[in-house]
Amino acid sequence: MAELFIKQAKQYAKTRPSYPPELFQFIASHAPHHNLAWDVGTGSGQAARSLAGIYKNVIATDTSPKQLEYASKLPNIRYQCTSPIMSFSELEQNVAKQSSVDLVTIAQAIHWFDLPKFYQQVKWVLKKPHGVIAAWCYTAPQVNDSVDAVFQPFYTVDCEPYWEPQRKMVDDKYISIDFPFEAVDGKENTGPFEFVIEKLMDLDTYFTYLRSWSAYQTAKDKGVELLTDNVVENFKRAWNENGHSQKVVRYPVYLRIGKVGNNN
Q1: DSSP letters of 196-247?
Q2: Which helix (H) or strand (E) holds 134?
Q3: 66: Cβ contacts below 8 Å, ≥ 6 apart
Q4: Which residues of the chain have pLDDT under 70?
Q5: Bridge partners, 255 (sequence order)
């Protein structure tokens, strides 16, 4: 998975959206202790940066050293490059001791994981019974009717052959993803709960975001340019239709959240 993002790590860090404060406030309100958080698949640290404002210490791990090069450095975040699969001894050495973590977060990444093995690790590090796991994704960006009309065939037709199968879980809003945890206190289920990201973009930044996709890089490696002259012109025409060069781009966010309980 990490290989898909190495070549566009700088674009990823520059254009991937920051998550809304409401998301972290919601998560923190359901985690009784705010001492130690583990952000898995941190990429360039978008979630870790926000967690650092709430949690005393954050451990942020990724399998890509290139991605970590672009991560925001804060005194209470420890970045760690790890192998995709860690033994429990490696987990203790690189991340944390057994039953010592208050919160595990996975932002836009859990669909890439070997879930049974990963969940074993989560259940090992989380404090029982109230340790919390929160995994979220964001789906396709929404701009306005004109831009979205160009985007939809680009996303669903042009890019479709180059997405990894795991992308389907994102399109499904994490509804069908295996999530063997208990509902947090005050909630009847583990979600998904919906939030929204809003990011002000010009067209160049929007294109840079599209180029940060794994599907774009996969196509490029196969000699295919998805942003053809024709597609670019269609986007330009739609983007400039109302005369405003900057637009608010909205990304729906879908959160699954649960606690480890005593039986895991």
Answers
A1: EEEEEE-HHHHHHHHHTSHHHHHHHHTT--SS-HHHHHHHHHHHGGGS-S-E
A2: strand 132-138
A3: 5, 6, 9
A4: 1-17, 263-264
A5: 136, 193
This prediction has a pTM of 0.89
CB atoms within 10 A of CB 261: 16
Distance (Å) of CA 70 to CA 66, 135, 169, 190, 199: 7, 22, 27, 32, 20
Task: Give the separation between CA 48 and CA 159, rounded to whole angstroms.
Answer: 29
Query: Which amino acid would we find at residue 180?
Result: P
Q: What is the pLDDT of residues 173-225, one digit of tens each?
A: 999 999 999 999 999 999 999 999 999 999 999 998 899 888 998 999 999 99
Give the 3-state secondary structure of residue 118: helix
Distances (CA, A) of 42 to 130, 168, 184, 203: 23, 21, 23, 26
Give the side-chain half-sphere CA count within 13 A for 27: 33
Q: What local confidence, expressed as pLDDT, does residue 71 receive?
A: 86
Q: How far apart are CA 230 and CA 236, in angstroms?
A: 10
The amino acid at residue 206 is Y
Determine which helix (DSSP H) or strand (DSSP E) holds 258, and give its type and residue range: strand 247-259
Average pLDDT, the chain: 91
Residue 66 CA to residue 208 CA, distance in Å, equals 18
CA pair distance 56, 58, nearest whole angstrom? 7
Whether residue 129 contacts residue 263, with contact meaning beta carbons closer than 8 Å, is answered with no
**Coil, strand, or helix at residue 165?**
coil
Which tokens sit at 211?
């180029």
| Cα 126 to Cα 95: distance, rounded to the nearest angstrom | 11
